[in-house]
Write the structure tokens for this entry.
Amino acid sequence: MFDAALDVIPLAIVAATPLLLAVQGELVVQRSGIINLGIEGMMLAAAMTSVLAAQATKSVAIGFLGGIAGAAVIALLFGLFAIALKADQIVTGTAINLLALGATGFVYRELQQGAIFVQSVPRLQRDFVLPLAWIAIPIVLALFLWNTSTGLRLRACGENPEVLGARVRSHRALALAIEAVLAGIAGAYLALALSSGFAENMTAGRGFIALSIVIFGRWKLKGALLGTAIFGLAAALQYALQASARGVPFHLLLAVPYVVTLLILCGVAGRVRAPESLGK
Amino acid sequence: MTPIVDRRRPAGAPLAEVRVKRAAYAVGAALAAILLLALSGAAFGHSPKELLALLIGGSVGSPFALQGTLLKSVPLLLTGLSVVLAFRAGVWNIGGEGQFIVGALAALVASRYGAVASLLAAMLAGAAWASLASLMRLWRNAPEVLTTILLNFTAIHLLGWCVNGPLREKAAMYPQTDLAAATLPRYGGLALAVLAAIGAWWLLYRTREGLRLRATGFNPDAATWAGVNVRAQLVRAMAVSGAVAGLAGGIELLAVTHRLFERFAAGYGYSGIAVALLAQLHPLATLASAFFFGALVSGAGELQRTANISAAVATFGQAAVILALIGFEHVRRRT
């Protein structure tokens, strides 16, 4: 059992990669004072547009760019309502998720002829995303958030926006743009590396799990990496159980990631301090 | 942060005038969403005219279509009310989907004791499932926005396990349960749901509990100063909200589907958010709002059957309504 878990650790790291990208993106926006529930929808849209772009050009790299573009469209909508119109962020995020779910479902059926979403989708061969997500992006984000004046201002938007006066919106827009890039890569990775194509609602709540891990990690990058790693290990155990298939029913195992996330949220959330102006 | 549905009345404005304005915004948002749907269809080469004709014909165009719309409105009305009660208290219950599912599961198990016991079990289960989230909030400060959503996914897989495992039909042909032992008349659910709307109005506007609930949602600090135990109030609001969503699941099982299967919930829980927001969080307006979305869902079903356009357009329409409402709300605040 334990050996089996060790065997699946590499798989778990790969499987947790889109989650880690999403966690880091959400961490940046939450540091700027925005809760973006719509990250689920951003990833879902990105997964679809990445497959469309990859199919159109037969290039995985352009597929990833297409994913980023798809996430950016959703981010633009979210920003329009939540930043420009100052609407409630949770309501906007929920609407954005419904929008992405409905729109991708609609487009999926419209373009299904020729099975464009599943048949001979180009797949990522040399995985450049994994080291990017686990090493390069965390370093770059840490340098940006804690060692540049823009990063300082961005974080100030999440704590005490009055200090900055009118520039809150532009910093939050910047944070949202960073999140869009990361969520776009995450969605594309989901479709082009972890699966071979797009399926309806394929993100399966990863966005919400990402939000929970941001809280678990106390809005810090180290915490985000640690949280994702713990979640990934729990997932690895689940895979091991599935593979050994002794006694535990498959359908209950499917619920494990969500229960683990609930436990993660309860385990530490008691003692954390959120950015002062989060959600305002 | 400005609430999406700002229910404060401007000083000196007569109530009637405010109500007419609110209704006008809601109708405007609904029309805007339908227009957007038609335009999106046009972008993929469907004629907007034909699309609208199918949408309307399939929802209110014939007595048969109207029946379908009414049946679809019942769960939407109840999940909408569930969201109204939670949001008015300032609790983010996004967990209607999960509460709907556990409600139906409990109703199925309890159905051998009769319809009344079955529905009571549904409400209890919904309340208990929702209370998991409020307990996690109280004990561990875990935000209920996330815990309720995560509990939805948990409930979906719980249902998947039940219909494939312990509750699978005796014949074991399909992943579904046997028929429930009790049934409701087809329109019994509708009557119950309308009663629930009136009951929710009574609770919110004619009882002390309702006043405390609204005060908590309006301004928790002020409510605390006025002697309301805000934490206990949040727990009660969440439980009531969960009970109503659970009831929705129980009624859907006993009156419509009679058995459970994996895709039983069909997004009714999430749709409840759109229903509640279009009704501007008023329980009686929820009647009209649920009917509109019921029509949208059954019209979208017709689109899928006749024109092979995905029924997911109903979900798209719900999102469009919410975003249009936000837009109107912004305009209202500017003027």
